[in-house]
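Typical record was shown:
=====
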Amino acid sequence: MTAHPSESRVFVGGSRRVTRLGRAVEEYLTDLLSGRPTILVGDANGADKAFQKSLFKVGYRHVRVFCTEGECRNNLGDWPVTAVTAPRKTRDHRFYGAKDEEMARVADRALMVWDGRSAGTLVNAARMIVLGKPVALYERLGASMLEFTDGAAWQRFVDKLNPELREEIEERLDRRRQDTAKTAQGSLLD
């Protein structure tokens, strides 16, 4: 009899500049996998691909790869794909961010690897926090695993970021809220 994964869904991801997970993240991931969750991962180069390599290497099968418009750039384990519709056709962070937003929506928790510069990784973590879901954020520069389970702890972390990065995170979250509002408004007028 084949064992089934738990109902837990873990969104894994991070910065595109991260090409290796490193020992601390590998150990954290190994602990996560012992609970047999479904791993939700994107298709980008960088952290997404590094997570895929690690999962493929250990033969983990309970994985779903999220791809925008169904076009996967990376699916190393030939895992099932979830195709996500983009809010626009221009291939930018809003196009590719649609899959990240969907993973945040369906995940129960997240494991993110941050290079200390990427706004996108922190946007994904913020989405999870806003939805009341816990995030483990490995900060590569400080070589530390940070755990966020509530908005207050997250806000203390964000307050320490440089102002330009904070502003970029907020702008990206605002633009996505605007895209969502336009889509909802369009469907109401159809």
